[in-house]
Write a structure and sequence with these properties.
The protein is of the alpha+beta class. It is 24% helix and 37% strand. Bound molecules: adenosine-5'-triphosphate (ATP) and magnesium ion.
Amino acid sequence: MHLRVSHITKRFGSAAAVDDVSFDVPKGSFATLLGPSGCGKTTTLRMIAGFYEPDAGDIEIGGRRVNDLPAHRRGTAMVFQDYALFPHMTVYDNVAYGLRVAGRPRPERDKRVNDTLTFVGLGGMGGRWPNQLSGGQQQRVAVARALVIEPQVLLLDEPLSNLDAKLREQLRVELRILQRRLGMTFVYVTHDQDEALSLSDWIAVMNAGKVEQAGTPWEIYYHPRTAFLADFVGAVNLVPARVESVGDGSVTVSFGPHRASVRRPVDVSLSTGQEVRLCMRPESFTIAPAGASANGLALSGTIARRAFLGDTMRYWVKVDDREWIVDQPDPGATETLDGAVLLSLRPERVHVIAES
Ligand SMILES: Nc1ncnc2c1ncn2[C@@H]1O[C@H](COP(=O)(O)OP(=O)(O)OP(=O)(O)O)[C@@H](O)[C@H]1O
Ligand SMILES: [Mg+2]
């Protein structure tokens, strides 16, 4: 493992901001800490960077315990939540700062700074001041300042959060390409689930100082272990249900008047009579006028509301006593529905959460 975090805890007063957090990040991968505001993401990153000392636990980089090393000797660099550019220094001097502190000679400094600025698309802008740059350009300076010292592990704390949606999306793509090209290990912090899903090889979802679940974006999105997680990473239908019987690879559940045999989640023990929740993503359904033939599990309902989102039409459909969120892709290609409808869903798209 390139970065290993073992049982780290950080308390401020009596409250634990980070509470027994462990994870491993392989070399060259894009790892993300995702979670709501205040869950301990920045505190975790600061401990890895060496700006906070953990109250307990170990941090290893490249097989070496770094707890006792100062920040500048860990092989890490951090891009801060607010960029933290030096306003009284030019772009060049901002980027050169770490090399100057490290005592690198002028010709080497010049070459590395100019190469890095070109690399992040800011070639020729070294003479500008931070206040003469757009938010997106400032963000690139912050990344360049971290990259120029050639860290082993780059730590990025919500670097895109101050930007507009379009630019954020563009820089997301650029960051991912950059990371791949350098083969550098990234630890990225965000509270934005789309960002986490689209960028990461691996995500740890944090809540109240703990890692609630870690895995690939696919695992986190489709096989969340808790209702909190299911809801945090996207729109979802979480429906209370009861376990009727447990088979080898399948489990039969009932909810309202409905009964379905669905896939049994791995690594979770379920027993007959247990109260659980079914997790169904809005885009997993097919929606059709009432009377259509169903494909799998069929639910009759009535449209309560709808919202046109451009790439999808989102319907809220009353089924039994609950409103279900159902997304229909490419609304321009189909008629807009109203009144009585039939929802259908293949049983393998239903995920069981062992929580009531
Ligand atoms: N220096 C500090 N002194 C006291 N409490 C702190 C300090 N830094 C963070 N905390 C507290 O620790 C908890 C975790 O903070 P942290 O900054 O790690 O959250 P975060 O996940 O980065 O949130 P955000 O998404 O808002 O940046 C919060 O309750 C915060 O108030
Ligand atoms: Mg933070």
